[in-house]
Amino acid sequence: MRIAIVGDGISGVHLALRLQQLGTDTTLFGRTAPPDLRHARALNFVARSGRTRQHEALLGVDFWHEPDTLATARTVTVHAPRPLTFRADPHPAYSMVDFRIYLPTLVEEYVRRGGRHVVTDLTARTASGAARRHDLVVVADSRAAGGLFARDPGRSPFRTPPRLLCGGLYRGIGEAVPHGIEFHVLPGIGEIVRLPFHGMDGRVDTLGFEAVPGGPLEPLCRPAPDADPAAFRRAVLAALHQYVPELRERVDDRAFALTRPIDLMRGGIVPVVRRAWCALPDGRHALALGDAWIVNDPITSQGANLGSYCALELAEAIADGPPYDEAFCRRVERRLRPHTDAVVQWTNAFLRPPTPQILELLRAADADPAVAKAFAANFDNPPAMWRSIATPEQTAAFLAALRPQPPVPAP
Ligand SMILES: Cc1cc2nc3c(=O)[nH]c(=O)nc-3n(C[C@H](O)[C@H](O)[C@H](O)COP(=O)(O)OP(=O)(O)OC[C@H]3O[C@@H](n4cnc5c(N)ncnc54)[C@H](O)[C@@H]3O)c2cc1C
C-alpha cells in the first residue's frame, strides 16, 4: 500500500515519520525545500505540549532538550475588576522551537531514514494527481484543502476572525518566573501572551497580542507592510504599559527589539472545521489532517498539538491495512471526533465572553492550587478540559471531585 501525504507541516511530517516506522510506503509532498524554510517569514509561534513531545520521543525526533527550549511554568492572569492570577504549570514541560528550525529538521530526518520528499506546488489538483499513484491521499496542507473539503457549517460558527493577531519574536524581555509562559486575559480587549522561545539566534521571547476586533489592541494587529519599525516598537511598548504593566517593567528599553522583520506575523484567522474526508474523481479517497481539517485560533495553543495527535491516531488506522474506502474514512473520523470536537468547542468558548462557569473555574483555580493544577493538566487533555467547562453542572462536578472528601464516620 502507498500513502501520499500532501503537506509537510507538523501534521504531515508526524504522520510520515510514524508510517515509516510502521513499514508503510509514503511520499511526503511539501511546497518548500527544507533549507529554504529556514529563511522564510514566521507563520506561527508554536508551544508543543507534553503529549506532542511524547509523540516526538516515539518518533525518535525529540531533538530539543536544552532548558532554553522548554517552559516548566505557566501563569494565568485575568485583568478584571477583581483580578485573578494563578500558576497552572505544564507537566511535562512545553517546548517552543521555531517551526522554521523544527519542520526542516524533521523532514530531513524522514529523508535520512529513506523517506521520499517531493517539493512541488500544493493544490487540490496535486492531491488528485497523487491519488492516481497511491492507495490513499492525506491532505495536510491548509491551503490545498479548500478546494477538496467543504466547510462544516454546524462546527464552524465564525465567518470573520474572532481575534486579530500580532505575534513576534523579541529581545530584551526579562522573566518573572524562569522558563515560564504568561497568559494575560483582558476581558473585552483580548489576550497578551509571552512565551520563552528558541529561535534562529537562540533564546528570545514571543509576544503575542490577540485583539478583539474593534478594540484598542486592533491597530497593532493590522498588517501594514510599509510600517515604520520605530512607531511599531513604540506601539508595542505602549500596549504593554497600559495593559500588562508588570510585564512592561521587565522590558529592558535599551535591548528591546523585534529580532528581525520576518519574525513578525499579523493578521486574522477564521476558525473553520471542514469535512474530514472526500471522494476523489477517480473513486479513491482523501482524508483531511491538521489545519487542512480544522483551523483553530491559537488562543488555546492547540492547532499543532491537535495535528500531531490526529497524525499518530491516523497512522495506526492506516497500518491496520486497506481497503481505504469510504467505510475506512468514516471509521477514522469517528475515532478522532471526540478529541477534535473537544478542542474546537473549548477554543471557541475561550474566544467568547467567558461563561459564568468558566469564571467560576478560574476563581476556584485562583483560590486553590489543586484546581489550578487540574486545570493545567487539562490543557493537554482536551476532552477533559471541555467536560470541565461545557455546562455549569459539569463545572460543579469537576470542582466537587477536587474537594477533599470528609472522612467517612466509622460504623
Ligand atoms: C500566531 C500563531 C501561534 C500559534 N501557536 C500555537 C501553539 O502554541 N500551539 C499549537 O499547537 N498551535 C499553535 N498554532 C497553530 C499551528 O501553527 C497550526 O495549527 C499548525 O502549524 C498546523 O500544522 P499543519 O501541519 O496541520 O498544517 P500547515 O501549517 O498548514 O502546514 C502545511 C504547510 O505549511 C508549511 N509550514 C508550516 N509551518 C510553517 C512555517 N512556520 N513557515 C513556513 N511554512 C510553514 C509546511 O511546510 C506545509 O507545507 C499557532 C498558529 C499561529 C498563527
In total, how many beta strands?
18
The shape is globular
Low-pLDDT runs of 5+ residues are none
- CATH architecture label of the largest domain: 3-Layer(bba) Sandwich
Helix content: 25-40%
CATH topology (level 3) name of the largest domain: FAD/NAD(P)-binding domain
CATH class of the largest domain: Alpha Beta
Attached small molecules: flavin-adenine dinucleotide
Termini separation comes to 65 Å
Characterization of the model:
The protein has helices spanning 10-21, 34-37, 50-59, 99-112, 124-131, 142-145, 218-221, 229-243, 245-248, 303-319, 326-351, 356-367, 369-378, 382-389, 392-402, and strands spanning 2-6, 25-30, 70-71, 73-78, 84-87, 94-95, 116-119, 136-139, 164-171, 180-186, 190-199, 202-211, 257-258, 264-268, 272-273, 277-279, 285-288, 294-295. It is an alpha/beta fold. The chain folds into three domains: 2-45 and 98-158 and 270-351, FAD/NAD(P)-binding domain (3-Layer(bba) Sandwich); 164-268, D-Amino Acid Oxidase, Chain A, domain 2, CATH 3.30.9; 356-402, no CATH class. The strands form four sheets. Strands 4, 5, 9, 10, 11, 12, 13 and 14 form an eight-stranded mixed beta sheet that branches. The protein has a six-stranded mixed beta sheet with strand order 7-2-1-8-17-16, with helices on both faces. A hairpin with a 3-residue loop joins β10 (180-186) and β11 (190-199). α1 (10-21) packs parallel to α10. The radius of gyration is 22 Å and the shape is globular. The mean pLDDT is 94. The structure holds flavin-adenine dinucleotide (FAD). Flavin-adenine dinucleotide binds next to α1, α4, β9 and α10.
